[in-house]
Amino acid sequence: MSIAGKLATWAAGLRPTAEDLALADRSLLDTVAVAVAARDEPVVQTASSLSEAARWAVAAHVLDFDDLHMESTTHISAVCVPAVLAAAGDARAYLAAAGVMSRLGSALGWSHYTSGWHATTTAGAPAAAVGAGVALGLDADRLATAMALAVPAAGGVQRAFGTDGKALQVGFAADAGVRAAYLAAAGASADASALDQWLELVGGDQSALDLTGPAIPGGLAIKIFPCCYALQRPISALAELATQLDITQVSRIVLKTPKGTVTPLIHHRPDTGLQGKFSIEYAAATALLDSHQGFASFTDHAVRRPEARHLVDLVDVRLGDGDGDGGLLAGELEAEVHIDGDVRRVRSRLPPGSPGRPPTREVLLRKVADCLQGTTLDPESIRWSSAGRILRDQLQNRPA
C-alpha cells in the first residue's frame, strides 16, 4: 500500500481517546487566540484576498506564537486548525490531520529541516487535505487521493523566516489541502503513490513512518513567548538571571548550545520585530531587558532600542560539535552573564510549555487573555462549532 493509502486508512479509522480530545481542545483554544491576536498585522490584511483557510493560517502563524510538534519540527495547529475549520470540521478531523502531519514530518526527519526546508509547509499541505477530507466525510481512498492532489503545494523554505513569506507559506499549505479535499470529493483522480515519490525527493524515510501510539505522538509544545521555538529556552533561562543583575554593568553574554538548536535562528543583528523572532542574540537582550517577553518585545521599535542593540553586540554564541541531529531542544543550554568581574550562570534543558514541562491551565489562560485583549471574546466561547465564525468575524474587514 502507498504511504498515502496507509495514512488515509489510519485517519479514516481514527477513534480518539479522551486524552486526544483534550489535546485537540487545547490546540483549538491556543490557535484561535493567537490568530485573533494577529488580526491587525499587515500581512493578515495583505492576505485578505486569499481563501479562509489561508487567511486563518497566516494569522495563526505570523506572530510565531503557535504550537509546535517537537519530533517533526512542525507547527501543526497553524495548518490543521484552519484547514479543518474551513471545512466545518471537528476535533476528530483535527486529530486526523495533526496525526498525519506529525507522522509525515517525523518521516521527513531532522535532516529535511536542516537542509533548509520549512517542514510546517512540506508536511502541512497533505495533512490539511486529510483534515478537510475527514470533515467532508471522505473515505480512505478519497483521502489518499486528496493527499496526492496536495503534493504540488508541499513546499516552503527557511529563507522566508523573518519575512511575511513564512506565514504566507503556511497559508498556502492550508489552502492547498482544503482545495485538494474538495477536488477529491468532487471526483478528481490522482495517483496516491505521488506522495511516496515526493517523500523520497525531499529526503524523507518511508521506513520511519509509524502509525502506532496516540493521535499526536509526543504531544505538542505550547509557546510562552511569541517567537521561534528555538528561543523559548534561552529566553526562559536568562530571564531567571535578569532580576539579579544591573543590566548597565553587563560586559558579556555567552550562550553555549548544541549547533542544531540554532538552525532557524538566521538573524544575528535583527532590525525588525519579525527578524527578532529568529535571533538568539536578541533573545538574550529581551530576556535581560524586559520583565515580560510578550508582544511588545517583538516590535520594530523594541528590536531597535539602543539598549537592546548594545546587548546584542555583547552576545557570544558558542555551538557544540555534537547534537547536530538532536532537534531544537537537543542537549542543554548554558548561559553566562559577565558583570563586574563576576560570572552568573544558568542551565536549562526544557523550557516552560514543552511536552515535558506542559503549561498549567492558568498559564495557558493568561496567554489566551493577552491574545484576546481588545475583544469581548470569552475563552469558553471558543469551541469547534463556533471557532470558524469567531475567526470570520475577527479577521474580516479589519482596518489596514
Automatic annotation (TrEMBL):
Residue ranges occupied by any MmgE/PrpD C-terminal domain in the UniProt entry: 225-375
Record Gene3D superfamilies: 2-methylcitrate dehydratase PrpD
Domain MmgE/PrpD N-terminal: 57-195
PANTHER family linked to this entry: 2-METHYLCITRATE DEHYDRATASE, 2-METHYLCITRATE DEHYDRATASE-RELATED
Family of this protein: Belongs to the PrpD family.
Protein name: MmgE/PrpD family protein
Organism the protein comes from: Nonomuraea insulae
